[in-house]
Structure formats: structure tokens, C-alpha cells
Amino acid sequence: MVGWWKNNREVRLLVHLLLPLCLHWTAEEMTHSVLVDVTTNALCPAQSTCPQAIYLNGLQQTTVGIFKMVVLPVLGQLSDDHGRKPFLLFTVSTSIFPFTLIVINKSKGFVYAYYVLRTINLIFTQGSIYCITAAYIADVVDDNTKAASFSWMMGLFSTSHVLGNALARFLPGAYIFLVSVVLLIFSPVYMAIYLSETVTPAPKADQRLPYFKAAYKIVQEQYNSMRYAANVVISSPTLKCISLALFCYELGMSGVNSTLLYYLKAAFGFDKNQFSEILMVVGVGSIISQLLVLPIITPLVGEHVVLCAACISSAVYALLYGLAWAPWVPYFTASLGVVNVLVKPSSFALISKAASSTDQGKAQGFILAVQSIAILLSPLAMTPLTNLFLSKNAPFDCKGFSFVCASFAVAISLCFASMLKPNTSNQPSEVDAENVEAPFLS
């Protein structure tokens, strides 16, 4: 670790990557707790429970999950072939437009328009930023410091959560979205000026082909590249096991995260300030665990043990939210986020070590696409179940029953994680070299 800090070039590259991303995440997070009140006030005035908002949120998550299955592997492959920087610039820039609508107006029509643009934005950013950023970091650092580097990345993500929620807690509501848009604009501008490229773009193919032949070639190259990415994951026992574990984990936790604030508002009457306080509890603990604890314990116990511990904590986290019997219980449960957040850095490190240097974007992107299938399926059960048990027609008195169900899905992910046999290298599968190296787009 000491040697890593002595490499000024690596530090400089990571600073120019993580600083604008930190501002981007801060800008998005500061709107999170406020958006619940904005949506509820616009769609269900003077009501604490808003079925329209819950279903709209579930529809957004399902739509994003459908398209992410295609978009994530494509962006991962394209970043391998054409460079990380243009796709990072593209993904962070798309967040500007939906939040600008809320700055202009918070009426019902603008809220619906926000959800349309935000859905399109999330298709390209949810998971893609992590995928391309993880691949960028893998380009820069060596295997011995990857776990610590990914931990610092997620630690800064948690720091952004704390900063964002602190701003949401103390800034007047009228200025929150305006400040967010300013930060969202600053991030891609900074990247465009200072971020260095780490990948040599693939040479452009002959563009003098007839239109239909060129279109057919693009489709064929896309199919071959995605087939290769799938083969990379399936042929590796480590990557395959991680895929199953993260699928079940996301199946449970994405449902919890998408409906949690609406559940707390309906069950306990929480408002913007209490949302911000709970999210800050998670964020502060996450900073400590990711920036300080994980770099120390990972060399001692390994990423596999860290992943299993995080899955156990996440299952308890979902169960306690589901059985919460008093307003203080969510605050206590939020403290488990200290361990929960270690799922991403530990899985990033395991995936990176199991994939070859030329397949980092493909492997990260494909496994995130597998997770997107879970994000697609989760609201199909969680949204109606949450709405049912929050209504007066609930079969029995357990407002958080959907969270109890989610905890079982996370427990299944623990079973797959415990069977994981991590390896530190993975050779490319036997695929036609011409198809493997071909870029997606001519």
C-alpha cells in the first residue's frame, strides 16, 4: 500500500477520476431524501402514503432493468475498445437534464417528465459508472492494490452520500435541486479538462462498406463481443459464482432500497430531515469501513470472507427494517450499512482478479447486466407487496413484510458467496481472436 502512494502518476490519475465522480454522487444524493416529499406532494397532496409514487418508482426500476441488460455489456465492451473517458463523460452528463426540470417546476406534469428523463438517465448510468470506473482503476493499479483502490472508490462514494445528505439536511428545500444541477454540470467539465485516457482506442474499420453490409457487420460484432463476454464469465467458476451471488443479493436489496423511504414515511411519518439523518448514519459508517477497515482486513481474511460477512449483514439489515416496531429501529438498522457497503468493493476486486487485463470492462459489464435482471424482477414483487401491506387491506399487521421477503433472497446470495472459490487470474476463452478484438461500432 505504501508503494502505491509513492507512485505519483497513479495518484494523479485516480484523483482526476474520483474527485469529479465524488461531486457527481454528492449532487445526486442530496436530492434523494427531498425527492420523496416532492413526488408525494405532486402526486398525492396532503397524504402520507402515495401508491402512485410507489408504483411509478417500481415502473422506473423495471424499465431501467430491462434496458440495462443490453446497455451495460455494450458500454463495458465499448470502453475496452474505444477508451474510458468518452463513456464516463457521457454517463455523468445525462444526469443534468432530469434534475433541471425539478429546478424549473415541481408540479405534477414536471414530476412525470422528470421520471421519464431520469429513467433514460439511469439506463445509461446505474451500474455503468461503477463498471467503467472499476475498469479505469484496474487499468491504473496492479493486482496487489486493487482491493484497496476499489475500497477507496466506494469510500468516496459513501463520503459523497454523507455530504449530499448533510446538504439536504441543512440547505433550504428551494435551493437543493439548484445546487445539485450546478455540481452535475461541473463534474463532466472537470473530466473533459483533466481526466486522462488509459486505453488506446481500437483502429477504425473500413467505413467504405455499403450501408446494409456495414449495419450487418455492426450487429455481428456486437453479438460476437457479447457472446465472448458471456463466455468469459461462464467459463470461470469464480465469475459464475459471483454472478449468482450478486443476482440474488440485488434481487433483495434493490427492492429494499427502492421502497425504503416511502415505507418509512408511511409507517413512521418520517420527513426530509429524518431521511437525511438515516442516510448520513449509513454514509458515516460506510466511510469508516471502506476507507479504513477494508484496506486493513482484506489482506488478512481476503475478499471472499468480506463478501460473505457483508451478505450476512445485509440479510439482517432487510429483516430488521421489515420487523421495525418503533421509530428508533430504522436508525439502529441503518448502522448495519457499515458492513453492507463492502459488497461492491469486495465483488469488484474478485471480478477484477478473475478476469484478464483485456477483459476488465467486459466482465464487470456482463456481471452488472446480470444484476440488472434482478433489478428488473425485484419491483414486480416488492412494489405491489409493499403497497399491499401499507394499505388498510393488508392480510396481517406487518407493514414491512416485503422487506422480510427480501432478506430471504439476500440469504440465498450468502449461500452462493460461501461456495465461492476465488482465483487470481483467468485466461481468455477460446474465441475467434478476430471477433474478440473487433470493436462494437465501426
From TrEMBL:
Location of this chain's protein in the cell: Membrane
Region span, Disordered: 423-442
TM helices/strands, residue ranges: 87-104, 116-138, 150-168, 175-195, 278-298, 305-325, 363-381, 401-420
GO cellular component terms given for this protein: membrane
An MF annotation (GO) of this entry: transmembrane transporter activity
Alphabetized InterPro entries for the sequence: MFS (IPR011701), MFS_trans_sf (IPR036259)
Signal sequence coordinates: 1-29
Superkingdom of origin organism: Eukaryota
Topological category with respect to the lipid bilayer: Multi-pass membrane protein
Keywords: Membrane, Signal, Transmembrane, Transmembrane helix, Transport
Pfam family, one: MFS_1
Main location class: membrane
Family label: Belongs to the major facilitator superfamily. Phosphate:H(+) symporter (TC 2.A.1.9) family.
UniProt name for this protein: Uncharacterized protein
Gene name of the record: LOC113729615
